[in-house]
Amino acid sequence: MNFIITPMRAEDWPAVEQIYLEGIASGNATFETESPGWEKWNSNHHAHSRLVARDQHSTLGWAALSPASPRGVYAGVAEVSVYVAESAQGRGIGKALLRDLIQQSEQHGIWTLQASIFPENVVSIKLHRALGFRDLGRRERIAKLADCWRDTVLLERRSRVAGTS
């Protein structure tokens, strides 16, 4: 591995945002069409379980968790985001980020991770399945992106550590 994974800091945002914008531009990573900016992104994600992968020159990818619901009964359920820079794909960065994110989530009492992925994003679906996520189903025509109805595949990973008692 020619990269390290560290906790994300506020000063990482410009690089994180650039990678996020690449994902947006791909049309197969998110329903978002523009960056929310640091303040909104920060408020929509857990303060814990935010990671960046970097080499000695640049940020290569990031992963973070957002609450699935504001309701207290769902405090242990989180939505997964994993993004890898186009120039760094195929090097195992996404797998390392997601593996570490799972560890972090369990340390913070998260018992269920969920991911909603466009079916065209085959690489991301395979990655999640490889790390213990299972398919819950396909949500057909769940929302529009650029006036086009899109489906998503809903995947879930239940912890064997957190929320077991």
Tell me about this structure.
The protein has 165 residues and is of the alpha+beta class. The chain has one domain: Aminopeptidase, CATH 3.40.630. It is built from four helices and seven strands. It has a seven-stranded mixed sheet. β2 and β3 form a beta hairpin. It is globular and about 45 Å long. It starts with a strand and ends in a 7-residue tail after the last strand. 28% of the residues are buried.
Question: Could you report the average pLDDT, rounded to the nearest whole number?
Answer: 96
* Contiguous runs where pLDDT drops below 50 for at least 5 residues: none
The CATH topology is Aminopeptidase
Shape: globular
Strand content: 25-35%
Structural class designation: alpha+beta
**CA-atom Rg in angstroms:** 15 Å
Please indicate the count of domains.
1
Distance between the ends: 36 Å
CATH homologous group name? Gcn5-related N-acetyltransferase (GNAT)
